């Protein structure tokens, strides 16, 4: 855990679970992302996402950006939605999301409960909202398709300000020579190997990545919830 001056946990370097299958799951996830990328024609918005020179695709439930009410994140076609849904249904992504969910619950139980109650309220309000993961309180995810996912310094201001987001690094790169996570406000440069998960408040902390070496690959899988969802529930839908 990363703590503040009052010993409150503000972020968690969760690492990876002690599982013999984890390397295989991580490898499967990276290969699935690379394979799926070959079948998607990315939109200009997905290619020019403001975070770096790589395509990024959001999936799940969101509110904001002109929406009148919470809804499923739209995709460029039904075929692309099917591809992304099939990708997230794979055991590797179900395991990655489940691990992040467990860490969130363990280190920030009150915030976790707030997320849980919000999502339960939304699904009761509109059962057509998609739920891509069996065990997670996060409403959305973004898949950064790389093959060199190196983010410029930024914050994700549409996310819940005091909430956490989970980032999992994937791919084939040397974590001693690149891919480190930089938390600029905290003055930290963090080694971030493939298969590791970190939970931080992305809306508050400016973050970026150290470049990787030539001929290496780095993808990332990010779980989060838009602040607009919580406002919608708080204001009685």
Automatic annotation (TrEMBL):
<protein>
    <recommendedName>
        <fullName>Prolyl 4-hydroxylase alpha subunit Fe(2+) 2OG dioxygenase domain-containing protein</fullName>
    </recommendedName>
</protein>
């Amino acid at each position: 855990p990363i703590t503040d001056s009052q010993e409150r946990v503000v972020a968690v370097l969760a690492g990876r679970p002690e599982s013999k299958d984890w390397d295989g799951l991580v490898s499967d996830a990276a290969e699935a992302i690379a394979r799926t990328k070959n079948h998607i024609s990315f939109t200009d918005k997905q290619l020019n996402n403001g975070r770096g020179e790589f395509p990024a695709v959001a999936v799940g439930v969101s509110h904001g950006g002109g929406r009148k009410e919470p809804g499923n994140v739209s995709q460029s076609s039904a075929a692309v939605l099917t591809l992304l849904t099939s990708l997230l249904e794979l055991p590797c992504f179900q395991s990655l999301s489940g691990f992040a969910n467990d860490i969130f619950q363990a280190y920030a139980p009150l915030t976790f409960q707030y997320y849980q109650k919000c999502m339960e309220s939304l699904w009761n309000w509109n059962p057509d909202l998609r739920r891509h993961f069996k065990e997670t309180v996060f409403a959305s995810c973004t898949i950064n398709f790389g093959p060199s996912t190196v983010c410029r310094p930024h914050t994700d201001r549409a996310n819940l300000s005091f909430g956490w987001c989970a980032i999992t690094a994937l791919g084939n790169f040397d974590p001693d020579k690149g891919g480190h996570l930089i938390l600029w406000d905290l003055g930290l440069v963090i080694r971030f190997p493939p298969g590791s998960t970190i939970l931080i408040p992305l809306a508050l902390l400016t973050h970026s990545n150290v470049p990787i070496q030539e001929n290496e690959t780095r993808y990332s899988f990010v779980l989060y919830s838009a602040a607009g969802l919580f406002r919608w529930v708080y204001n009685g839908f």
